Amino acid sequence: MSILDLRNIYKTYGKGDNEVIAVDGISIKVDKGDIIAIMGPSGCGKSTLLNILGCIDTPSQGEYYIDDFQVDFKKLNQLSKIRNEKISFIFQNFALIKDLSVLENVMLPLKFRGIARKERVNKAIKYLNELDIFNLKNKSIRQLSGGQQQRVAIARALTQESEIILADEPTGALDQENSIKIMKILQELNQKHNKTILVVTHDNLVARFCNKTLKMKDGKWDSIK
Ligand SMILES: Nc1ncnc2c1ncn2[C@@H]1O[C@H](COP(=O)(O)OP(=O)(O)O)[C@@H](O)[C@H]1O
Ligand SMILES: [Mg+2]
């Protein structure tokens, strides 16, 4: 059984002359415990595909099964339940709340899950420490560099301890040393905790930490290595 099973997915934006086909008939089966890199040139549809996998965006056509359960993209409540319970998403643009502190940002998804404040604080602190940003916990997001914001976004995703982790260019704002640190954390979550991980990346270093690399081109799979 695949944990994620995407069948013949299309996503178009705009109409008529302005139509853009971002995802052009993609299928993918992901097994539990896979760690996969998705690569390809800018604009080839990687983020759109990952957003559909994360139930953040809806496909124009195609079917999606998570744990053999068909996702109904028309049911917004169902989508938010899936995101809440199963998927941690690391956004390309971090999507942090600028007016909240680092600690509040990292704790926020746990609040949506109804977890008590004490446990929220404990979990958040655990991952702030793992990412070496505990000392930033009371700072506002506005005070942070791009690399620091990236680590906060990763800490926020990991704090949820979801079965599935989807990351869109998680090392895009980091130097090599910090990129390796992040990938080691993801690799450990995969190997020790059997998390299923998909990482969109431009970085060959990131792909080296994954078991499989899938390449996209013009909204389709290019080749499988
Ligand atoms: N919200 C949107 N509205 C219109 N076009 C979009 C939107 N999001 C993405 N696109 C277009 O879809 C294509 C794929 O984009 P994207 O998935 O972001 O690619 P990648 O992540 O590989 O750089 C691009 O041509 C992009 O301009
Ligand atoms: Mg992208």
From TrEMBL:
<dbReference type="GO" id="GO:0005524">
    <property type="term" value="F:ATP binding"/>
</dbReference>
<dbReference type="InterPro" id="IPR017871">
    <property type="entry name" value="ABC_transporter-like_CS"/>
</dbReference>
<dbReference type="Pfam" id="PF00005">
    <property type="entry name" value="ABC_tran"/>
</dbReference>
<dbReference type="GO" id="GO:0098796">
    <property type="term" value="C:membrane protein complex"/>
</dbReference>
<dbReference type="InterPro" id="IPR003439">
    <property type="entry name" value="ABC_transporter-like_ATP-bd"/>
</dbReference>
<keyword id="KW-0067">ATP-binding</keyword>
<dbReference type="GO" id="GO:0016887">
    <property type="term" value="F:ATP hydrolysis activity"/>
</dbReference>
<protein>
    <submittedName>
        <fullName>ABC transporter ATP-binding protein</fullName>
    </submittedName>
</protein>
<keyword id="KW-0547">Nucleotide-binding</keyword>
<dbReference type="InterPro" id="IPR003593">
    <property type="entry name" value="AAA+_ATPase"/>
</dbReference>
<dbReference type="InterPro" id="IPR017911">
    <property type="entry name" value="MacB-like_ATP-bd"/>
</dbReference>
<dbReference type="InterPro" id="IPR027417">
    <property type="entry name" value="P-loop_NTPase"/>
</dbReference>
<keyword id="KW-0813">Transport</keyword>
<dbReference type="GO" id="GO:0022857">
    <property type="term" value="F:transmembrane transporter activity"/>
</dbReference>
<comment type="similarity">
    <text>Belongs to the ABC transporter superfamily.</text>
</comment>
